[in-house]
Amino acid sequence: MALTETIAGKKAPPKNARDIFFAMGIIVILAVLFLPIPAFLIDLGLAFSIALSVLILMVALWIQRPLDFSAFPTVLLIATMLRLSLNIATTRMILSHGDQGTHAAGFVISGFSKLVMSGDFVIGLIVFVILIIVNFIVITKGATRIAEVGARFTLDAIPGKQMSIDADLSAGMIDDKTAQLRRRELEEESSFFGSMDGASKFVRGDAIAGLIVTAINIIGGIIIGYFRHDMDLGSAADVFVKLSVGDGLVTQIPALIVSLAAGLLVSKGGTRGSTNQAVFGQLGAHPRALYVASALLVLLGLMPGLPMLPFSFLACAMAAVAYIVPMQNRRRIAEDEAEAQQQELTKQEEERDSVKESLKTAEIELLIGKQLSTKLLASHQELAFRMAKMRKKFAQQYGFVVPEVRVTDDYTIPAKSYQIKIHGTVVAEHQLRVGEIMVLLGHRDLPDIPGEEVREPAFGMRAYSVPEMFAEDLKREQLAFADNMSVLLTHLSEVIRNNLPQLLSYKDMKALIERQDPEYRKLADEI
Q1: What is the CATH number of domain 364-526?
Q2: Residue range 217-247, pLDDT digits in tens
Q3: Domain boundaries, given as residue ranges, for the chain
Q4: pLDDT (tens digit, 9 = 90+) per residue, 295-334?
Q5: How far apart, in Å, are the Cα atoms of 365 and each of 29, 445, 465?
Q6: pTM for the whole structure
Q7: Disulfide-capable partner of 373 in 18, 60, 368, 394 (CB 3.0 to 4.6 Å)?
Q8: With the C-alpha atoms ordered 165, 169, 172, 176, is the resulting torsion angle positive or negative?
């Protein structure tokens, strides 16, 4: 008991400590701006900066829509502050211990300086300037412009989109939850593009800061090495230029990656799906363009003086893509259609087997006895076709679509009989002579053919039922006759015609009104 009270009295630890770690990370970034840190921590920070920039790029590539990465402006600010704080820390390390050699600011900067510069600081300086130009003039400037235009058009379109949501809600096309969700998405979209407009300035300022810091490192390092550490001018320039350019490369490569991620994110616009799906799906959706490009590459490969192998390889690759992509698209469409049909069949079977479906009453139902059902089984498609034609005729005559007729085999009624139900109530029934045809007599005398006088079920006219084998004899005597299916469908048609008031439901009336022009629908609403 005491142990239980002790455990219950203790304060439970937080379930999620990520907010604490996040705040501590921000404090560490700010601390790096002012406090000196050792070289191995600088290496760790630079490696983390590169990994973070690659992670941001991969997320920007694989998200389905820009709003799925709505935290990008915040992440961009944090990544920029991390690079700037590391840049200041490396500047402090370079200026303080640059006389010790290229490893003074850590092994990451030294490794990048050797890898990119190949031991020559002039090459590294040129590569660094090119990276600055690409990042600042090409990627950052374009992403900034796209963000500005996107934010402007998004904010201008907000009133129209809000009115569209309100109109859909008033018309009943969406419910309150959907309208609330769409309004929230609209708010997030406007906030996101507005934030991206400002966040693009972080990238632009980061590029400028990197250039200025590198220049300061080079000039300040040479001055400190020459005047304070008694180094000759050539040695000071060699060491401090390598360190400064290596530092600038380590800083600008993550900046370039993040700038590319920002450009991909804002240029995606309203395109849904990951970037590779959007790019390859739209480029590969036009095989003729790929074939033309392939033919052009073949022509370039045949030109004198140009290498044949790379052009031929690319031409074959484009031709293969132009052949394979449409085939895969057709296969995928066929698979999607088959899956949709299978889901529809499964849904229909579940609905058919459900208790709710068993309790549902058909508006029009035709029950057929066992022997009559066997007779009509071979011509089931013809029965469905003639029923559809009958419903179309009713729609043309009376202006609304008659509900579908449910045809059911019922072994509880006489084998040669059928029943017609309206809303579950039997309104008509009749027993047919299976294997015979019905001659419509009217006021004529009975024909000289074996048979029996009966009554036609639809109109109650005099009729004469004879075996089907005498059909040719009836044609020679020019007597009109009907088979079992025609008699049944004529009876069904008259029953539906006599019960149209019961079949015109509220749902049908609403559908009739919705098919009218907008001004007539508004008039009906006012009435």
Answers
A1: 3.40.30.60
A2: 888 888 888 787 777 777 777 777 777 877 8
A3: 26-276, 284-329, 364-526
A4: 888 888 888 877 888 888 888 888 887 788 778 777 888 8
A5: 76, 36, 26
A6: 0.57
A7: 368
A8: positive
